[in-house]
Amino acid sequence: MAKHVQTRDREQTRKLLIEAVGRVLAQDGFAGLGVNAVARAAGVDKVLIYRYFDGLPNLLQAYGESGDFWPSLEEVLGPDENALRKLPLDARTAIIVANLLDALRKRPQTIEILAWEAVQQNALTGALADVREQWSRNVIARVLPDSLKTETDVLALASLLVAGFQYLLIRSRNTKLYGGLALQTDDGWRRIRNALFQAFRLSPPPRSRH
Amino acid sequence: MAKHVQTRDREQTRKLLIEAVGRVLAQDGFAGLGVNAVARAAGVDKVLIYRYFDGLPNLLQAYGESGDFWPSLEEVLGPDENALRKLPLDARTAIIVANLLDALRKRPQTIEILAWEAVQQNALTGALADVREQWSRNVIARVLPDSLKTETDVLALASLLVAGFQYLLIRSRNTKLYGGLALQTDDGWRRIRNALFQAFRLSPPPRSRH
DNA sequence: CTTATAAGTCACTGGCCGGTGACATTTTGT
DNA sequence: ACAAAATGTCACCGGCCAGTGACTTATAAG
Fold first, then answer.
1. Residue A122 in 3-state DSSP?
2. Radius of gyration over alpha carbons of chain B, in Å?
3. Do A119 and B178 touch (CB under 8 A)?
4. Which residues of B touch A116 (CB under 8 A)?
5. Is A200 helix (H, G, I), strand (E, B) or coil?
6. Measured on CA atoms in the order B157, B158, B163, B168, is the torsion positive or negative?
7. Which of B153, B164, B180 has the CB atom closest to A155's CB atom?
8. More confident site: B131 or B1
9. Helix, strand or coil, per DSSP, at residue A16
10. Helices within chain B (DSSP H only)
11. B96: number of Cβ within 10 Å
């Protein structure tokens, strides 16, 4: 039952559409994201978005499930989880937060979605939010269980710092300087990274693996 | 030469339009901001936007110059600037940052503009950015001159923290929880405020004036 | 009172949008 | 080989948008 070379292939077309979402998102941002633009980018008729995905929201959902938008636990905990566990709470938290920063810096499309999330909710941002929520619960359970019963509010500080660099990542797309920070240079981001450690009272930021 | 009660008054109409911008912004956010919406809200024909302001960008500019979107130096430095000057650098910075947080929390329209700014540039966000840039230079010159030559990068940490709560303010418009922080309760914001001080190694956050 | 000009109204264009129905063509099952 | 179903194309709708030209009406100057 060898299949012909298909000129019409539902799965292939679905894939084209999903990939087109990524391309439109990268090129025009979420502002330009619509059935017409996506269909055009996919080289496919927009009616198929309705037929195969029942509308744009579900297509976005599919797109969200297709990529690795959020770093894995391994990527953020580093190669040696056990060594990490032995550090004091502050150091552990700082390293994880800094690693998260590095991981997100590598994901321009995730940053685009984060920007979107800042202004409106939708299927895509909702999916990402769920993943992230679960992710942070996992991190706490696995390497920061003691953070829940400390005197100082380590988790609040960590969240505030994560919020801070997420915002700076978003702004870096179209802003050169923010409060004296150069958002489009590696040097500026080194400063930001150092400030993270400073907030946790650690002077010399350990290097992240390369 | 006592003027009649005017039924046609250019200045009055300009004012109506400018105020309408604020109303639309507050009600529908920047997504719903357009010549049609603004004109409708002002109860005035949209063609006047072109006649009196030469288009929406200039109208936004006028709106930007009309309100106090950014807190004054006085509002953030507190009533007793001299007392503030005598504190150590960390404490000074922490207090200013925390006061800025309080000041912005009271300005929903500024938060709306900040959200806008995160995703796209335009006349309005540009104007606000200029004001803010100047503002932070003034703060540094007036009460944080020593921050420029410290070992630890106090300004980077301050900027990161400001970025953090700005992002949380933006998110608080349509998100209840972020990283375990309750963004729509005073208690959640107290936690965030405390985390600010914690980042500067100050355990008990001084109360802001009431 | 007359008239020029400013203020404001109205109707329209052209473009893009999301969404749908009717149609043509390929693939699949029998 | 044939019919049914799946795949894809096309033309169209109504709605909202930004922007413009032609119009009416109030105001002010003489």
1. coil
2. 20
3. no
4. 119
5. coil
6. positive
7. B180
8. B131
9. helix
10. 10-28, 35-42, 47-53, 56-66, 73-77, 81-86, 89-105, 108-119, 123-143, 154-172, 186-199
11. 22
